[in-house]
């Protein structure tokens, strides 16, 4: 476990020991001070004020049996929330300039309080104050007992005579006592999101950060895993993992200290808003809340970390987590911008043949003066194109409903083309720097969501569509560029916190949408996975992980997302991309949230029948795939194969997915040991997702095995050819 800081002896004859420590500039813990323990059923973090009233972190790790067990065994500095400008000389969590220009900050412990928000959720607030200034910080900790997740954030306020400038303001400050730490983070680019990288942190500072403004998770996802002392595996080892819930610029710093005289060998993790171009002038009596940081800990390896996050996300982290997901057919790859009303209505029949729940109309349906016939025009003019859709969106919704389909629609409400009526009418609504050439990306610009009038406009895009067609059940919210040359005409000379105020404006719009349309399904999209984080996901049911739909690439992309995001949030569509067989594409998509983006009229009857079979299987097994526990079995990062499985909570059913990526002559086939089953139960194993009359690839199809056998001995790897796949259904008998 992580043992952090030390608890000083409390017996009288040890006073001389305390004096020796003080002489070495160590800060002894105040024996009479109350220990503050934030705990779930299995994880705990503990704090205690020292003799100088500085709050120290004394423990992080497995929950102990009682409060007396949490002892400070190292007389070293592990501050709960380090401040800059005073005596702390490393990277701080909070750095300010007071109203009088003083750049130093000291935070003394004042008090704490705990309350039960529900039988499963406990909130702890720890109050801190600068002894010389009316400057206040509250550290919030929300413990989710059964999920073993702790959510933390910080509230900053003051009553000084003028504004206080916040130059840095992290969400948390986590201390890990370990001489070596292994970091797993997730990087990428458009079409190659969420690639995994694991390495040992060297002494110094490593940072995961974004300055992209809106598509903030495009290059780095604000999620990570840290293994202290030894590299953890999927099933064993200590792991601390965290994810920052924020849709703006972020910075997660990892400061590795070696042989530090005050802090020894330790790792400081500092997640929060990126300080780049984000000095925030905090007015007297104003409260500033930092983004929430969600973390967990496990001694059972990386797999348990994922199951903790998935359980929390379904119950607390995403919108309507327990709502059944809709399978869909998207028209994008079938038509792109080239369609009309009749074309779309004819596609509804294809959706029925596939057996999906919904038809999703993608880009190209709007704008009249500058019709949206390509990406260069129309963005911002959100009225149905009269030439393409003379009956409007309402007609399409009516026709879809008549065929037993729900209807969804694509929007990109934060963006604008210069070739649009909106741009002509409101050039002051655009983020663009004065005295700089206009820089277009994907021929578009970003609207200024710091401006309340623009917030009203963006809300109105969704509100007007829903008023005109209340039966719309789904919206795909896209965001296809990042910020550059970013300047807000609304903020004028006060540009310092523009990025922060944009994110706040974005959340205000989403708050209004969810207050008025709580049942509307929404997909989070940003040229793929550019906005995948829990700050936005609390408003969305699901996300589009990547525009890359090549099945072999998707296996790795979806594998990376699985560490922090449950399967029901990860939209996976069957498309024309890739040379793999249709079955392979279906099996890859079914392991997440199944959808289609295909030309049904070009499919054979046999392909349509298989697609319908898989859609039915997904719907039948959705409770297992979407709400069961995930076990990653064979990693595509370590082999030419991949396998994962889901097990329902009662351990009565399971679904196993297996893929061959490439098959080389020198390949050694992997072990396929299952996990998460009840060793004392018997399971019938049946291969599914087969064409009518097709022979199972799994030669022991239909046989019964004990859970113990499946987990201890496993199954023989039975896929021998490249680009082959299989799905097994396990059912207790």
Automatic annotation (TrEMBL):
Keywords: Glycosidase, Hydrolase. It catalyses: Hydrolysis of terminal, non-reducing alpha-D-galactose residues in alpha-D-galactosides, including galactose oligosaccharides, galactomannans and galactolipids. Residues 54-283 form the Glycosyl hydrolase family 36 N-terminal domain. Signal peptide: none annotated. The active site is at 478 (nucleophile), 547 (proton donor). Residues 642-728 form the Glycosyl hydrolase family 36 C-terminal domain. It comes from the Bacteria. Its EC number is 3.2.1.22. The keyword Hydrolase applies. One of its GO terms (biological process) is carbohydrate catabolic process. It is an enzyme of class 3 (hydrolase). CDD domains: GH36. GO terms for molecular function: alpha-galactosidase activity. Pfam families: Glyco_hydro_36C (PF16874), Glyco_hydro_36N (PF16875), Melibiase (PF02065). Belongs to the glycosyl hydrolase. This is Alpha-galactosidase. It comes from Mucilaginibacter pineti.
């Amino acid at each position: 476990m992580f043992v952090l800081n030390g608890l000083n002896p409390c017996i009288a004859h040890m006073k001389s020991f305390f004096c020796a420590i003080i002489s070495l500039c160590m800060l002894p813990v105040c024996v009479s001070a109350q220990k503050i323990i934030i705990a779930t059923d299995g994880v705990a973090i503990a704090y205690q004020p020292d003799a100088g009233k500085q709050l120290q972190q004394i423990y992080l790790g497995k929950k102990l049996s009682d409060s007396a067990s949490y002892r400070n065994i190292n007389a070293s500095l592990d501050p709960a929330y380090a401040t800059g400008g005073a005596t702390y000389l490393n990277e701080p969590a909070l750095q300010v300039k007071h109203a009088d220009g003083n750049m130093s900050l000291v935070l003394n412990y004042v008090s704490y309080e705990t309350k039960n928000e529900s039988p499963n959720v406990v909130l702890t607030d720890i109050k801190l104050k600068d002894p010389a200034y009316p400057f206040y910080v509250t550290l919030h900790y929300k413990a989710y007992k059964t999920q073993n997740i702790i959510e933390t954030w910080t509230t900053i306020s003051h009553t000084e005579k003028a504004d206080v400038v916040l130059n840095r303001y992290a969400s948390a400050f986590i201390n890990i006592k370990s001489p070596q730490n292994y970091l797993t983070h997730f990087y990428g680019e458009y079409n190659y999101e969420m690639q995994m990288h694991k390495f040992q942190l060297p002494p110094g500072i490593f940072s995961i950060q974004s300055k992209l403004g809106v598509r903030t998770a495009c290059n780095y996802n604000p999620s990570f895993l840290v293994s202290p002392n030894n590299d953890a595996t999927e099933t064993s080892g200590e792991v601390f993992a965290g994810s920052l819930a924020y849709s703006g610029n972020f910075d997660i710093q990892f400061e590795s200290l070696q042989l530090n005289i005050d802090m020894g060998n330790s790792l400081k993790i500092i997640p929060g808003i990126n300080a780049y171009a984000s000095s925030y002038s905090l007015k007297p009596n104003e409260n500033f809340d930092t983004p929430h940081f969600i973390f967990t800990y496990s001694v059972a390896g990386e797999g348990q970390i994922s199951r903790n996050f998935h359980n929390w996300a379904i119950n607390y982290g995403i919108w309507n987590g327990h709502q059944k997901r809709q399978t869909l057919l998207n028209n994008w790859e079938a038509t792109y911008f080239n369609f009309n009303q009749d074309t779309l209505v004819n596609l509804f029949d294809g959706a029925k043949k596939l057996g999906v729940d919904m038809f999703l109309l993608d880009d190209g349906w709007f704008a009249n003066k500058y019709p949206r016939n390509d990406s260069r025009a129309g963005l911002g003019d959100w009225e149905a194109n009269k030439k393409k859709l003379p009956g409007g969106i309402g007609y399409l919704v009516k026709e879809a409903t008549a065929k037993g389909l729900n209807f969804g629609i694509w929007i990109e409400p934060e963006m604008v083309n210069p070739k649009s009526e909106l741009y002509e009418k409101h050039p002051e609504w655009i983020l663009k720097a004065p005295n700089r050439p206009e820089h277009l990306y994907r021929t578009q610009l970003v609207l200024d969501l710091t401006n309340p009038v623009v917030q009203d406009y963006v809300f109105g895009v969704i509100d007007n569509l829903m008023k005109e067609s209340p039966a719309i059940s789904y919206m795909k919210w896209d965001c296809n560029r990042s910020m550059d040359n970013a300047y807000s005409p609304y903020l004028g000379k006060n540009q310092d916190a523009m990025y922060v105020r944009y994110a706040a404006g974005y959340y205000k719009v989403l708050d209004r949408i969810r207050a008025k349309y709580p049942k509307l399904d929404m997909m989070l999209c940003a040229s793929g996975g550019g906005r995948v984080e829990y700050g936005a996901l609390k408003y969305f049911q699901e996300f589009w992980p990547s525009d890359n739909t090549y099945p072999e690439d998707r296996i790795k992309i979806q594998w990376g997302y699985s560490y922090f995001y449950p399967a029901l949030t990860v939209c996976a569509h069957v498309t024309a991309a890739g040379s793999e067989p249709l079955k392979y594409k279906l099996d890859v998509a079914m392991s997440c949230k199944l959808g289609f983006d295909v030309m049904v009229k070009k499919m054979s009857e046999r392909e349509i029948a298989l697609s319908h079979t898989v859609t039915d299987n997904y719907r039948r097994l959705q409770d297992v795939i979407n709400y069961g526990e995930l076990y990653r079995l064979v990693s595509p990062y370590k082999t030419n194969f991949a396998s994962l499985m889901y097990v329902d909570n009662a351990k009565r059913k399971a679904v196993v997915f297996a893929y061959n990526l490439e098959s080389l002559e020198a390949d050694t086939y992997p072990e396929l040991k299952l996990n998460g089953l009840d060793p004392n139960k018997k399971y019938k194993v049946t291969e599914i997702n087969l064409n009518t009359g097709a022979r199972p690839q799994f030669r022991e199809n239909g046989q019964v095995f004990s859970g113990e056998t499946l987990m201890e001995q496993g199954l023989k790897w039975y896929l021998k050819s490249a680009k082959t796949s299989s799905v097994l259904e396990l059912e207790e008998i």
